Amino acid sequence: MTSLTLVRIIRARPQIVFDAATTAEGIVHWWGPDDGPVLVAEADPRVGGRYRVRFLRMLDNTEYESSGEFLEIVRPERVVMSWRWKGGVPDPCESRIEMTFEAIPEGTRLTFVHSLLHDEDSCRSHEAGWSGALEKLEAYFLSENRREDINSR
Amino acid sequence: MVNSQERLDRTFKALTDPTRRAILAQLQRRDCASISELAEPFAIHLPAVMKHLDVLANAGLITRSKSGRTVTVRLRAQPIREAMDWLRRYEQFWSRSLDRLAPYAEGKEAEARRKSR
């Protein structure tokens, strides 16, 4: 499975980071690819609840909307949500976001994983078997990225 | 005709070697490269690099084209490229987002501590 992992150390307790990450009040402050504002944030953080985030991307001055469902919630340790773009974004695949919040002396270690689901029919059809090979290659690239991510802190 | 199981075996075999993964990583960073450019970072001789390139070409991961005395190597795997585009896009998206989440949560933490005093 294609996936992206980011790790951050945040100087706040897990409950606070969890709420900042999963509630509409929190999401409005951080979600988005650049400094463009979040225009709409709705979230119902319980299993089966939905979220919807509409934001403006400064780069092309265009509004984008992503939405999905909360699939698993263990406050303040872990949340899993589905993710899908709405509108003309060239990424028809449904994907999955998993955040884990680990209590550490500094506060919280947040591990953020976004994975593309290959088994969906609507997804680009990679030939059977490709994804496993891709995973190995990506693990290689990602280990480089992750080092940079940690070093740049 | 090569069946998919055979192709999968070749792909796996091609990707198990760290030198070959590094060659693919180089091709990912630049569009194409000559064989000597690819060989440069490695402490191995050109014939060994050629062998690695044979394995990658047999697995369908690269193409080689010859012009005069120069062989140009290109990454071929479209699925890999697509996957990389996807990764880059979301890496930027989420890393910028988390850059804002951290100070926001840290501000909330400071607020909670002030209140509990």
Strand order, largest beta sheet of chain A: 1-7-6-5-4-3-2
CATH topology of chain A: Alpha-D-Glucose-1,6-Bisphosphate, Chain A, domain 4
How many helical stretches of chain B? 5
Which overall shape of chain B is indicated by the principal axes computed on the Cα atoms?
Answer: elongated
Record field, number of beta strands of chain B = 3
Overall mean pLDDT of chain A: 80
* Most residues in contact: chain pair: A-B, 45 and 38 residues
Strand content of chain A: 35-45%
Termini Cα gap of chain B: 74 Å
Structural commentary:
The complex is a heterodimer of chains A (153) and B (117). By secondary structure, chain A is α+β, with helices and mostly antiparallel strands. Chain A has a single domain, classed as 2-Layer Sandwich (Alpha-D-Glucose-1,6-Bisphosphate, Chain A, domain 4). Chain A is 23% helix and 42% strand. Chain A has three helices and seven strands, in the order E-H-H-E-E-E-E-E-E-H. Chain A has a seven-stranded antiparallel beta sheet. The longest helix of chain A has 22 residues. The radius of gyration of chain A is 16 Å and the shape is globular. Chain A starts with a strand and ends with a helix. Chain B folds into two domains: 73 residues, Arc Repressor Mutant, subunit A (Orthogonal Bundle); 40 residues. In chain B, 70% of the residues lie in helices and 13% in strands. Chain B starts with a helix and ends with a helix. The chains are: A alpha+beta (153), B alpha+beta (117).
